[in-house]
């Protein structure tokens, strides 16, 4: 089945996409996405809640997608064309694909990526695992035999990779995604296996009630780690003080293979206190209220 996305509004597209596991969801469903956990993805599919994305990165990724596709055509001599459709797997109807390009006259697809220079090491020899799982997901849905990934790194380094269909990997991924989707349909959350901010979005306001927390060990470990962090920060600050004592008024120091810089700098800051006092009405006009929840723990003596 194919769903035409050309006239689809962004909100409608997101709502439709949340009815399936997409290619960019594959790594998260498998627990192999360092930015999004299986629980984060589950909440996104069940409740439509997700952490805010970097809109600038998304914008430029979209703008540069065509540039990357044209460079792929130039370097390979192949032709590609857009596929403005959401492709739904007939055999596995919980899986969908929104591919960037179809390679004309070839049983293959093209994914176009952009990334900053800090991530260049991840693309040195092969594609990052999350993108490998993404194209395996796409090959599972489309039935194509291969995928190409073209990436523009730091706006000035182009690389491309050819990835053959791997039936074993695809079979493994399908079963992982099937198990995940069963949890979505049953509204049974997967285990929380890492730090995430999703609970701040899921539960933005407290209800004033009190509950018993069964996992006392986690609370005690949290307090213990907090104390360790304080001690380490104290030690680190002392090390910084010793380094400054050696640098004195010098800007740069050499320590073995390390270069230490202690530069002078200046900055301007807005005097909020004075502005509030002298321009109270204007201050209140431009002040907006935001709500947060802060977690604090104190020990109750028995």
Describe the structure.
There is one protein chain. The protein is of the alpha+beta class. The protein has two domains: 2-202, Lambda Exonuclease, Chain A (Alpha-Beta Complex), CATH 3.90.320; 216-285, no CATH class. Helix content is 42%, strand content 16%. It is built from ten helices and ten strands. It has helices spanning 10-17, 26-29, 38-47, 55-76, 129-142, 167-186, 198-202, 216-247, 272-278, 280-285, and strands at residues 2-4, 80-82, 85-88, 96-97, 101-103, 108-115, 146-153, 157-164, 252-255, 258-261. Strands 2-5-6-7-8 form a five-stranded mixed β-sheet, sandwiched between helices. The chain has a three-stranded antiparallel β-sheet with strand order 1-3-4, covered by helices on one side. Strands 9-10 form a two-stranded antiparallel sheet. The chain is globular. The termini are far apart.
Query: Mean pLDDT, as a whole number?
Result: 94
Q: What is the chain-wise order of helices and strands?
A: EHHHHEEEEEHEEHHHEEHH
Q: Main sheet, how many strands, which sense, barrel?
A: 5 strands, mixed
The number of E-state strands comes to: 10
The strand order across the widest sheet is 2-5-6-7-8
* Low-pLDDT runs: none
Question: Quaternary state, please?
Answer: single chain
What's this, in brief?
The chain contains ten helices and ten strands. It has helices at 10-17, 26-29, 38-47, 55-76, 129-142, 167-186, 198-202, 216-247, 272-278, 280-285, and strands spanning 2-4, 80-82, 85-88, 96-97, 101-103, 108-115, 146-153, 157-164, 252-255, 258-261.
């Amino acid at each position: 089945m194919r769903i035409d996305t050309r006239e689809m509004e962004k909100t409608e597209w997101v709502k439709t996409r949340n009815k399936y596991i997409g290619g960019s969801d594959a790594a998260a469903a498998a627990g192999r996405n360092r930015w999004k956990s299986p629980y984060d993805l589950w909440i996104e599919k069940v409740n439509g809640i997700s952490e805010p994305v970097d809109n600038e990165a998304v914008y430029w990724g979209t703008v540069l997608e065509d540039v990357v596709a044209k460079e792929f055509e130039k370097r390979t001599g192949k032709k590609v064309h857009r596929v403005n459709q959401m492709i739904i797997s007939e055999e596995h109807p919980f899986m969908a694909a929104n591919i960037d390009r179809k390679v004309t006259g070839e049983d293959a697809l093209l994914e176009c990526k952009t990334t900053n220079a800090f991530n260049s090491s991840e693309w040195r020899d092969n594609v990052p695992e999350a993108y490998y799982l993404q194209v395996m997901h796409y090959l599972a849905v489309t039935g194509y035999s291969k995928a190409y990934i073209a990436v523009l790194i730091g706006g000035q380094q182009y690389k491309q990779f050819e990835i053959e269909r791997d039936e074993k990997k695809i079979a493994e991924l399908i079963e992982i995604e099937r198990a995940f989707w069963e949890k979505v349909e049953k509204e049974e959350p997967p285990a929380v296996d890492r730090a995430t901010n999703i609970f701040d979005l899921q539960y933005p306001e407290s209800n004033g009630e009190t509950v018993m927390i069964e996992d006392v060990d986690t609370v005690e470990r949290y307090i213990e780690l907090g104390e360790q962090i304080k001690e380490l920060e104290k030690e680190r600050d002392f090390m910084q003080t010793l380094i400054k004592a050696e640098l004195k008024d010098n800007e740069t120091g050499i320590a073995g293979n390390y270069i230490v810089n202690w530069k002078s700098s200046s900055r301007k800051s807005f005097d909020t206190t004075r502005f509030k006092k002298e321009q109270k009405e204007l201050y209140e006009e431009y002040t907006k209220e935001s709500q947060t929840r802060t977690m604090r723990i104190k020990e109750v003596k028995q």
